[in-house]
């Protein structure tokens, strides 16, 4: 690509994807009578599709290793900030839960490590393997459009 990428643009796309995925999956959970657990566990992964697809669309290439690392790090950083805010809001809104949680610190640490590690791992897989798929689909779509005009 040559120049530096505007990382905030792609973090914005990730934030938009995160919000839409959370709302859509939350609505599905409500409709089927479940909890918001589906949205909480899958939205961070699904949200990675938006900045990856946008990058491929903007530059018509897959990101280099350095670009992928930058995009991934920025989106993981945003994800961790959002998760921290959620934990703080829950602690303020439900202070009685804090004492229950602090009574089992080992279980909490294990749940957080596994939960965060799982999400970050899935996000990495998306940033690693989805750009090539998005580029293939983009080029196929453009080829179909050209063949229809001919």
Question: What can you tell me about this protein's structure?
Answer:
InterPro entries: ABZJ_00895-like (IPR047730). The chain has one domain. It contains 6 helices and no strands. The protein has 150 residues and is mainly alpha-helical. The two termini are 31 Å apart. The longest helix has 45 residues. The radius of gyration is 19 Å and the shape is elongated.
Could you outline the blueprint of secondary structure elements for this entry?
Elements: H1 7-32, H2 37-47, H3 49-59, H4 65-93, H5 95-102, H6 105-149
Quaternary organisation of the protein chains: single chain
Helix percentage: over 70%
Radius of gyration: 19 Å
Instruction: Report on the biggest sheet.
Output: none
Number of structural domains: 1
Keywords: Membrane, Transmembrane, Transmembrane helix
Organism: Gordonia liuliyuniae
Protein name: ABZJ_00895 family protein
InterPro entries: ABZJ_00895-like
Short description:
It comes from Gordonia liuliyuniae. Keywords: Membrane, Transmembrane, Transmembrane helix. The chain has helices at 7-32, 37-47, 49-59, 65-93, 95-102, 105-149.
Which features would summarize this protein structure in a list?
mainly alpha; 0% strand; elongated; 150 residues
